[in-house]
Every structure is written in structure tokens, then in C-alpha cells.
Specification:
This protein is mostly helical. The chain has 1 helix and no strands. 0% of the residues are buried. Keywords: Dioxygenase, Iron, Metal-binding, Oxidoreductase.
Length: 65
């Protein structure tokens, strides 16, 4: 029951959603660790090129000289 509630909350909670209209040379970046991603087939007859990038570190850091 709790899982069903959470999934419905995510799916219907418009304040948590991002809708992106693709344009030529557009770039979109999201963090899959904190995102429920659902791609919509809304770009025919065009093509989409996707590249998955995974960072090696879990915690951001800055190396001081």
C-alpha cells in the first residue's frame, strides 16, 4: 500500500515533474540516482542522440593546489 501511494504520488505530482521540449543541439542532464526517468516518444521523424555519463565519485570534492 505504501509503495503504491509513493508511485502514484510521483506519477501525479506535477510539482515534481519536468517536461522538456527538445530543440536542435539541446542538452539535458539529470541525476539517475535521484530521478525516476520516463522518456516519451515525442520526436518523430527526428532523431535523439543520448550518451550516458556516470561519475566515479559519490561525494563532490575540490582538490586544492
Amino acid at each position: 500500500a505504501v509503495l503504491r501511494f509513493l508511485l502514484k504520488h510521483i506519477a501525479e505530482g506535477h510539482e515534481f515533474q519536468v517536461r522538456y521540449h527538445w530543440t536542435k543541439n539541446a542538452v539535458a542532464i539529470w541525476d539517475n540516482r535521484a530521478t525516476v526517468h520516463y522518456a516519451t516518444y515525442d520526436y518523430p521523424p527526428g532523431n535523439r542522440h543520448a550518451v550516458r555519463v556516470t561519475p566515479h565519485g559519490e561525494i563532490p570534492y575540490f582538490e586544492h593546489p
